[in-house]
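Annotated sample (chain length 362).
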Amino acid sequence: MTSTRIIGAGSFVPDRVIDNDRIVKAIPGWTADQILQKSGIRERRFLWDFDERTGKAIPPPADVWPRTGTDMCEAALRLALASARVDANELDALFLVNATADVPDFCHDALQLHKRFGMRSDAYADQFNSGCGGALYRLHLIRPLIESGACKTVALVAANLASAFLDRDVYTDPVVSADGKQLSGFLSMYLFGDGAAALILRAEDATDASGIIASVSGADYSALMIREGGGAMLAPMSGRGTLGQFAYVIDGAKVAQCFLPFMRQCLDGVLAKCPQPAPPIGRYYLHQANKRLVEAFVQSANLPLDRVAMHMDRYGNTTAAGTLILLAEDVANGVVKLGSGEVVLFAAIGAGIHYAAHVIRL
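Output written by the structure step:
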């Protein structure tokens, strides 16, 4: 039998720190203290800077690297390949998950990475437009590709580039949800941060008991996150939409309502498939939606807080990249070690809804 094992991990988080005091100057709505109180976020990292006076993003100069979401993905993937001691030519597939693509059509960002790394022409390059649960959801689809023998070595990459979308006019324009509720676009600019991460997954002989032990995933339509602008129905500059419909808008009340039950569904579902993993779970990588929500879930599920990785207070929500960044940083810092046999648990839900969980022996 074959198992799906993580053999490499890497991440990239920008150096630019944006604290709450600065973001509220550009995008008014809450105070800096309200952001901290409601979300637990003190700061987030942005790749792009912005003008506090106009509330507009400032693109980096053309000669600055990294300057795009694809650049961040490249940086993370290079570290992951080095961690795995794998050459890019060995990759049979590359799957990229994001909702803030540099160019939204034709799998642009994934194909750019395919080209930059000189991957074989017969190696897959696919892009998956999804939110916070997307990387773990895609991992559940990658697993059978590997364990069936269709692919041996696969890269899973996830990224978020919130800073490029910062625009006061867009994020303070009123948005009304499908159920008639007025939502605040500014919340997205407070919660989201930039970053990318990559995992290298490889088919291994299951006799060593390493790899993915159990997985669950699911889909359930619920608009936790709304971006109505774009596509055929509300094309840019068509006169059919408003500025606010081009914002990424969180339905905060709906997220708070859905987070605990869906995360509990993930946890219960995956542990039902391996109720007593050996050794016991040593680290939990949970979706960094909102620090207060994560803390409430940890308490309700009676999880040991000291084993729950957390970076929401420093990085904000990096959507699909979040759980992968947590693992990559733990590997880099020696908190966990790939190939050690330690058992970890991943769980995330996200806009759509896509949700998934995995128990993995490293």
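Annotation: The mean pLDDT is 93.
Annotation: The chain has one domain: 2-361.
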